[in-house]
């Protein structure tokens, strides 16, 4: 079992273990500090809403399956909200529908949401939890590598606007994050790659051990390797989130490659997935930073070697002009300046603020 405690404004554990899904009810009960009814020996009057998407629902979300059974055995009154999933449904319409669903089921401030799925499900559920009745608790049960390595931890929740990715949201920490390593068995190579991109990002920012361990592998089918990677990446994230929960300073480092990734996702109408876009974004930033002499030690070759080892498609189909335009809604723009995350060397990145006019030439150096 891996357990990492995150001491953010809301403290919580991130727990990874094989078979842990069958114990969700008990873990949620403990995390929320709930007491059993003395007569039935179970929880009473406590609603939980599983929020999931159409891909994950048949795998883990059904009434006759492990999660639902574990929650009902503990005494939760279980409800479920399923939405289509994908970036196309990560929007305010889904949030509104979910909030109306909770109201129709008479959820109160002491009830709870449980996000069962990848990063999109987690972001949507977290945002709904942050706003329903001005805030209720929520649990993250990530089912993808990307979600356990990155998005389920740290409390960034939200949705896309037409203008761009993650432009509406809230900082709202979960009360617990549970990951069952058996989820890894159902993931395709491409879905695993999305998580690997975020793990590589954490490695470049602060933990060269992640990159060393990735360099020793050629395939992604060893669950122990992936669990170890996840624990190292979560540890990186824990430190940064505890230091700067609301993204005003050092947390922006977790955005390495993301200014371009979000632009690439938007230009592709979300056909290019987040992790794949982050890989492209990191490549562009690393090459441009080396060429401009912004790195202390050249690192683009190392970064490219790692990305190519796992066959990330790294050719970006958009021009510097298209990307710079799409990046004009980046949350790291203040006034006429944008703060970029650039590598100094492997294991250390820094923030560099440039005029937004300089973004297009910067991107050109990296393409
Ligand atoms: O947790 C963070 O902080 C991150 O930047 C992690 C990113 O990998 C993640 O994609 C995040 O959702 C991006 O946040 P945004 O503020 O750039 O929308
Ligand atoms: Zn990301």
Q: Could you please describe the fold and organization of this structure?
A:
The chain is α/β, with parallel strands linked by helices. It has 2 domains: 185 residues, Rossmann fold (3-Layer(aba) Sandwich); 178 residues, Dehydroquinate synthase-like, alpha domain, CATH 1.20.1090.10. The protein contains 14 helices and 12 strands. The strands form 3 sheets. Strands 1-2-9-6-5-3-4 form a 7-stranded mixed beta sheet, sandwiched between helices. Strands 10-11-12 form a 3-stranded antiparallel beta sheet. A hairpin with a 2-residue loop joins strand 7 and strand 8. The longest helix is centred in the middle third of the chain and has 21 residues. The ligand O=C(O)C(=O)C[C@@H](O)[C@H](O)[C@H](O)COP(=O)(O)O binds next to helix 6. It is found in: Cytoplasm. It catalyses: 7-phospho-2-dehydro-3-deoxy-D-arabino-heptonate = 3-dehydroquinate + phosphate. InterPro entries: Dehydroquinate_synthase, DHQ_synth_AroB, DHQ_synth_fam, DHQS/DOIS_N, DHQS_C. It holds the Pfam family DHQ_synthase.
* Level-2 CATH architecture of the largest domain: 3-Layer(aba) Sandwich
- As a percent range, the share of strand residues is 15-25%
Ligands in the model, by name, code or SMILES, are: the ligand O=C(O)C(=O)C[C@@H](O)[C@H](O)[C@H](O)COP(=O)(O)O, zinc ion
The largest β sheet comes out as:
7 strands, mixed
Q: Compute the number of strand runs.
A: 12
- Large-scale geometry: globular
Strand order of the largest sheet: 1-2-9-6-5-3-4
């Amino acid at each position: 079992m891996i357990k990492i405690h995150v001491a953010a404004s809301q403290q919580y554990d991130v727990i990874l273990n094989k078979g842990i899904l069958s114990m969700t009810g008990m873990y949620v009960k403990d995390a929320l500090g709930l007491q059993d009814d003395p007569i039935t020996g179970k929880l009473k009057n406590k609603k939980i809403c599983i929020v999931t998407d159409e891909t994950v629902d048949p795998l883990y979300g059904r009434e006759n399956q492990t999660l639902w059974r574990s929650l009902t055995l503990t005494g939760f009154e279980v409800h479920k909200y399923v939405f289509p999933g994908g970036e196309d449904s990560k929007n305010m319409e889904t949030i509104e529908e979910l909030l109306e669903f909770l109201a129709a089921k008479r959820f109160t401030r002491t009830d709870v949401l449980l996000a069962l799925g990848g990063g999109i499900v987690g972001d949507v559920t977290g945002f709904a939890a942050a706003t329903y009745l001005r805030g209720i608790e929520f649990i993250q049960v990530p089912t993808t590598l990307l979600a356990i390595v990155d998005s389920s931890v740290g409390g960034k929740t939200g949705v896309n606007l037409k203008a761009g990715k993650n432009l509406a949201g809230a900082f709202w920490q979960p009360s617990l994050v549970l990951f069952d390593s058996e989820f890894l068995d159902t993931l395709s190579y491409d879905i695993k790659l999305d998580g690997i991109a975020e793990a590589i990002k954490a490695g470049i920012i602060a933990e060269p051990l992640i990159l060393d361990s990735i360099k020793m592998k050629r395939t992604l089918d060893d669950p122990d390797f992936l669990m170890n990677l996840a624990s190292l990446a979560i540890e990186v994230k824990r430190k940064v989130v505890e230091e700067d929960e609301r993204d005003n300073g050092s947390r922006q480092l977790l955005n390495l490659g993301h200014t371009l990734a979000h632009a690439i996702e938007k230009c592709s109408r979300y056909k290019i997935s987040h992790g794949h876009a982050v890989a492209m974004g990191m490549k562009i930033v690393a090459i441009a930073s080396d060429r401009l002499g912004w790195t202390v030690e050249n690192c683009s070759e190392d970064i490219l070697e790692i990305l190519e080892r796992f066959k990330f498609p790294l050719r970006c189909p958009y021009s510097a002009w298209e990307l710079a335009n799409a990046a004009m809604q980046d949350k790291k723009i203040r006034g006429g300046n944008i703060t970029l995350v650039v590598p100094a060397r492997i294991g250390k990145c820094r923030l560099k603020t440039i005029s937004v006019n300089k973004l297009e030439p910067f991107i050109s150096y990296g393409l």
